[in-house]
Amino acid sequence: MNELVSISHHADIAVVTISNPPVNALGPGVPEGIQSCIATAAADPGVSAIVVMGGGRTFIAGADIREFGKVVSGEKPRRSLLPFLLEIEDCAKPVVMAIHGTAFGGGLEVAMAGHYRVIAPAALVGQPEVKLGIIPGAAGTQRLPRLAGVAKAVEMCAFGEPMGAQEALALGIVDRIIEGDLTAGAVAFAREVAGHPPPKTRERTAKLRDADAEIFDRARQQARKTRRGQNAPLAAIEAVEAATKLPFEAGCAREAELFDECLYSTQSRALMHAFFAERAVSKIPDVPKDTPVSEIRRAAVIGAGTMGAGITMNYANAGIPVIVKETEQEALDRGMANIRRNYANTVKKGKLSQAGMDQRLDLITPRLTYDGFENADIIAEAVFEGMALKKQVFAEIDRIARPECILASNTSYLDVDEIASVTNRPEMVLGHHYFSPANVMRLLEIVRGRATSKAALATSMALAKRMNKIGVLAGNARGFIGNRMLGPYLREAQFLVEEGASVEDVNGALYDFGMAMGPLAMSDLAGLDVGWRARREFKHLEKPGVRVPLVADRLCEMGRYGQKTGRGWSRYDENRQASHDPETAALIEQVAREAGIGRRAILHQEIVERCIFALVNEGARVLGEGVALRASDIDVVYLNGYAFPAWRGGPMFYADAVGLGTVLARIQEWSACHGEDLWSPAPLLVELARSGGTFSGFDKRREVAG
Ligand code: 3H9
Fold first, then answer.
1. DSSP tag of 373
2. Any residues with Cβ below 6 Å from ligand 1, and which?
3. Distance, CA 62 to ligand 1 centroid (Å)?
4. pLDDT for the residue numbered 706
5. What is the pLDDT confidence band of residue 2, given thresholds at 50, 70 and 90?
6. If we measure between CA atoms, which residue out of 399, 375, 409, 382 comes closest to residue 324?
7. Is residue 527 predicted with pLDDT exceeding 70?
8. Which pLDDT value is given to residue 531?
9. What's the order of all strands across the beta sheet hosting 176-177?
10. What is the pLDDT of residue 532?
11. pTM of structure
12. Which tens digit of pLDDT belongs to each residue from 278-326?
C-alpha cells in the first residue's frame, strides 16, 4: 500500500484501487503498490478473494511512456514487470481484474496476470505498443494467445487496434461484462469464484494449438504492406510465434529480447515523440486552460465544393447541425451528392450504420441563400482560393452573423488579417485550414490573425477535438506551417527532374523514405492547377533572376492537371494507376535544354536529402519566426497532414536524429552550388547547429521560458 494504491474491504472481498491520474499508468510506485496490497490481502484470513481496479476514469492505460525515455538515456535501469505479474498469478486467492476505461499495453498485461477479468460495457482492451515502436514487454505476447487464440493475439499485438468488451468476452480475454456499478459487480463475481483454485493464464495451452504458419505469414505480409518500414509489428509477430513454440518462461525471454531491440531504436523514440507531440499541440502558452470556450450549437459552411462538402461532414459527424450554402443549384446538388456518396461508402465498409448515416444527413441543410446564417455560432468559408472573392464573402457574412459568431476561412495561403479587415469583428476571424479530404485527414491548422481573440482560439481547439481532429496553432504567414514548408519541398522535387532524375526516381526515393507517396505523385493527386493558380496570385512576390520550377506550369498550359485529367507528371488509367509518361519526360528534357540546365545521374540519397532538408530548413524558419509554437507542432502537421512516416517522428525530429550539423553542412553545399536565394540556411538552424543544439532542446527551452 502507498499513496498510489490503496485497499478497502467489502466484507470478505478486498478491493485494491489504483489512483495515479490521469490514466493510472504503471509509473514508479504503482506495481509495487499493487504487489504490496495483494500480499496484504493474501495474508489476511478475513479475505477470500481480491478485486483490482482503477480509480478515476480508467483501469490502467499501460506503462508510463515517459519512463522509457529515461531508460534509453541510461538515467534509469530497465525494470521488468514479469516477476511482479508472476506474483499476482501465483496468489493463492482469486484475483479479479475489474476493467473500465482502457486496459492498454501493460494494463492488459496486468489484467491477464489476474485469474479473472470483468469489464464495463464501454471499456476497451488492447496492446497498442506497436504504435509507440515497441512490443508488449510484460508477457502480453505470451499470455494473450493463451486467452484469445493465436490469430487474434497476432492481430492485436502487431497492429495495436483496441477491442470492445463484447468481442473481448467472445474471445475469452474477459470473463464477464458488468452492467451497472462495476465495483459491486466485480465484488459479487469475486465472491462467486472465492474458494475455487484460481486458474493461471500462463498454464493454459489449449488455444496455442490453433497456431499455424499461415497466420504468421499473412500477418507479416499485412504488416509489410500497411506498416511499411516499421520494425515493431514484425517483432510483435515473432514474439507471439515464440509463444507457440517455446515454454512460457522461454517465450517471455524471447519477448524481452525483441522488446529491447525495439526500445533502443530510433523508431520507438520517433513514435513516442509523436505521441507526446500530439498531446502538447493543444497547449497555447498565452491561452490559459480556463479561457472561456463558446458552445458551438449550429454551424454554417459556405461552398459545397470538395473542401466545403468535407467540412460540412465534419460538423455533422460531430453532431452539430450545419447549413451548407452554394450559389447555384447544380453546385449544391453536386456537393450534397458527394456527401451522400462519401457516407454511403463508409456504410459499405461497415464503419458507419445506415441509421448513423441518416442521422448525419438529417443534420445537414442545403441552401442557396444565407437564411439561417443569423443563428450560426460559427461560419466556415470554403470558397475558391482568391482574396477578392474571400473578402466579398466575409463582408457579406459579417453583416448577417451574430456578433459572437466565429468566422473561419478555409484558406490555405491567404492573409487572414486582410480577410478580417473587411469585417467589424476581426477578433472573431481566424483560419480553419483543413486538409483534403477534409472529412478524413485529422489535421486542422488554426490560423491566428493579429486580432483573433483567445476565446476564438480556445473554441477552435475544442471544436477540433470534438471533430476528432488535431488542431495545430499556426501564425498568419503565407502558407501557414504546412503549405509554406511544402513550397521548397516541391520546388526541389521539380528541380531534381529538371537536373536529370526521372519522375519515377523522385517519387520512388521519397516513397522508399517512407512518405505515403512521392512529391510529384502528391501534386498529381492534389491537382497541378491548384499550385498554378496560387503561383499566379503571388507572381508579384517572385524575386527576379531566382530560379523557379518550369515544368508544372507547362503541364497546366497543356491541360494536364494530374489525376483528374488522367495526365500530369505521370499518366493515369481509369483506376488512377500511374505509369511513366514519355511525353512528360520529353517535355522535361526540352524545358531543361531551353533553360540551359545541365542533366546528370542523381542518386536517391541526394533526392531524399534535397527534398527533406528543404522541408527542414523552411521548418526552422517557421519556428524561428514563431509561425509554429514548437518544432513538435511542425512534426504533428507533417505526420497528420502530409503523411510523413510516423516512425521517423516528423521532419524536425528526423533532422535532430540526422544531426543538425550534418543538415546545415549539406544546405551550405547547396547554397554554394545553387545560390543563396534558394538555399540560405535558416538562422535558427545555424544557431542550433553551431551550439550543438536540437529542435527538441529548443522546444524545451521555450517551454521553460513559458
Ligand atoms: C506499455 O504499456 C508497455 C508494456 O508492454 C510494458 C512494458 C514493460 N504514459 O491521450 P490523452 C497522458 S507501453 C504516460 O490526452 P484521452 C497523456 O500524455 C504503453 N502518460 O487522453 C496526457 O497527458 P497531458 C501502452 C500517458 O482520454 C494524459 O495522459 N499504452 C499515458 O484522449 C491524457 O491522455 C498506450 O500506448 C501513458 N501510458 O486518451 C496507451 N497515456 O494531459 C497510450 C496517456 O499532460 N494512451 N498519458 O497531455 C492512450 O492511448 C490515451 O492516452 C488514452 C486516453 C486512450 C489512454
1. G
2. 22-23, 25, 61-66, 81, 102, 104-106, 109, 128-129, 132, 136-138, 140, 279
3. 7
4. 66
5. confident
6. 382
7. yes
8. 82
9. 5-10, 13-18, 49-54, 95-99, 116-119, 176-177
10. 87
11. 0.95
12. 999 999 999 999 999 999 999 999 999 999 999 999 999 999 999 999 9
Q: State how far the alpha carbon of 309 is from the alpha carbons of 328, 380, 407, 440, 543, in Å.
A: 15, 11, 17, 12, 37
Atom of ligand 1 nearest to the CA of 65: 9
Average pLDDT over residues 553-574: 95
* Residues classed as catalytic: 109, 129
Percent share of the chain, pLDDT over 90? 93
Cα(20) to centroid(ligand 1), Å: 12
Exposure string for 36-46, b = 16+ CB within 10 A, e = fewer: ebbeebbeeee
Query: Which atom of ligand 1 is closest in space to residue 81's alpha carbon?
Result: 8
Handedness of CA 52, 56, 62, 68 (dihedral sign): negative
Q: Which atom of ligand 1 is nearest to the CA of 131?
A: 36
Going by alpha carbons, the residue nearest to atom 28 of ligand 1 is 22
Output the residue whose Cα is nearest ligand 1's atom 56: 61
Asked if pLDDT for residue 171 goes beyond 70, the answer is yes
Which atom of ligand 1 is nearest the CA belonging to 78?
8
Q: What count of residues does the chain have? A: 706
pLDDT at 543: 82
Torsion region of 646: left, alpha or beta (phi above 0 gives left; psi -120 to 50 gives alpha):
alpha
User: For residue 441, what are the contacts with CB-CB under 8 A and spacing of at least 6?
Assistant: 434, 435, 640, 641
> Which of 23, 70, 79, 99 has most ligand 1 atoms within 8 Å of CB, for mutation?
23
SS3 412: coil
